[in-house]
Amino acid sequence: MEDSITYPQGRSRKFPADPYLLSYYGCLLAVIENRTKEGVTICENALNLLKTSMPFGSEFFYPVFYLNLGRAYLKDKKKKAAVQAFQEGLKNDPETRIYYGK
Fold this sequence. Notes:
Helices cover about 75% and strands about 0% of the residues. It is mostly helical. Helix 3 (about 35-55) packs antiparallel against helix 4 (about 60-75).
C-alpha cells in the first residue's frame, strides 16, 4: 500500500509541473492517507495547472482530473463539491468508461 503513495510522490517531486501526476498524487493522499485537505488542494492545483499548461486539448484529460478531485472531495466529506466535480467530468466526456466502471 505504501508504494501507491511513495511512487507518485517521488515522481511529482521529479516532475513538479506534471499535472497528471499531481492529480493522482492528490487523490491518493486524500483517499489512502486521509490527508484530505492537502489532497484536495493538490487535485485543484493540478486541474488549474493542466488548464494553463495545455490550453488546447486539455479537455481530453478533464474526466480523469475531475474524477480524482471528486474522490478527494468525497473523502473530505464534501459531497456537494464531489458531485459537482463528477458532473463536470461527465460534461467533458459523457461516455467515459471511468465513471461507469466499464
